[in-house]
UniProtKB/TrEMBL annotation:
It comes from the Eukaryota. Residues 203-214 have a biased composition (Basic and acidic residues). Residues 179-189 have a biased composition (Low complexity). InterPro entries: Snf7_fam. It comes from Morchella conica CCBAS932. Pfam families: Snf7. GO terms for biological process: vacuolar transport. This is Snf7-domain-containing protein. Residues 178-214 are annotated as: Disordered. Residues 193-202 have a biased composition (Acidic residues).
């Protein structure tokens, strides 16, 4: 019955709005889940920094800084998702406003603001599927135009000096002002073994972060 009415009179605005809001809430819950996971991972990483810094191994300083770099990556990811949640909430408000205006004026206006935010959110690995579903509903409603793939530039990686500055800041915070000095280039014959251990630690922390994106 509803499909027949939609064919004759067009989509029911109330149904469209309800579907959009359901998808927005679904995406918000997904972001909340990932943010909570990152907070847990951040807490574990801080503990690992403290544990590694107290180790008596020859390469503990190098390992501690490697883990601190991963802490910086985790915090950047968390910050990005928090910003994305704010964008999603903005989309929700603009969508509801657009449907309210439609009741008064009898037509809906395309929103460049919603288009920009949706274009950004649809590229999040955590939301790709559900955001595409939302974007299709917004296109049907006339709030945005057809999505353009890769319309936004990729995230720019931090420069090395920026990373090191963040690492220093993170170490001061976690270790109460005591910063682990960056180790000088090792000259011992065990250099290759130490570098391999450092890389194993780094790979382990990166794997944990990547698991949250999958």
């Amino acid at each position: 019955m509803e499909s027949i009415k939609a064919m004759i009179w067009g989509p029911d605005p109330a149904v469209q709005l309800r579907k959009c809001n359901q998808l927005i809430r679904k995406n918000t819950r997904e972001l909340d889940r990932h943010i909570q996971q990152l907070r847990g991972l951040e807490s574990k990483t801080k503990s690992l920094i403290l544990t590694t810094s107290k180790s008596r191994s020859a390469n503990s300083a190098a390992q501690t800084r490697i883990i601190a770099r991963e802490l910086v990556r985790i915090r950047r990811q968390s910050s990005r998702l928090i910003t994305s949640k704010a964008q999603l909430q903005s989309v929700g408000m603009q969508v509801n406003e657009a449907f309210s205006v439609r009741k008064i004026e009898g037509s809906i206006r395309t929103s460049t603001g919603v288009m920009r935010d949706v274009n950004s959110l649809v590229r999040l690995p955590e939301l790709t599927g559900t955001m595409r579903e939302l974007s299709m509903e917004l296109v049907k409603a006339g709030i945005i135009e057809e999505m353009v793939a890769d319309s936004l530039p990729d995230d720019v990686e931090m420069e090395d000096d920026e990373v090191e500055e963040e690492v220093e800041k993170a170490l001061r915070e976690v270790m109460g002002g005591t910063v682990v000095a960056a180790p000088a280039a090792p000259v011992s014959p065990e250099k290759g073994i130490e570098e391999e251990e450092d890389q194993d630690t780094l790979d382990d922390m990166r794997e944990r972060l990547e698991m949250l994106k999958s």
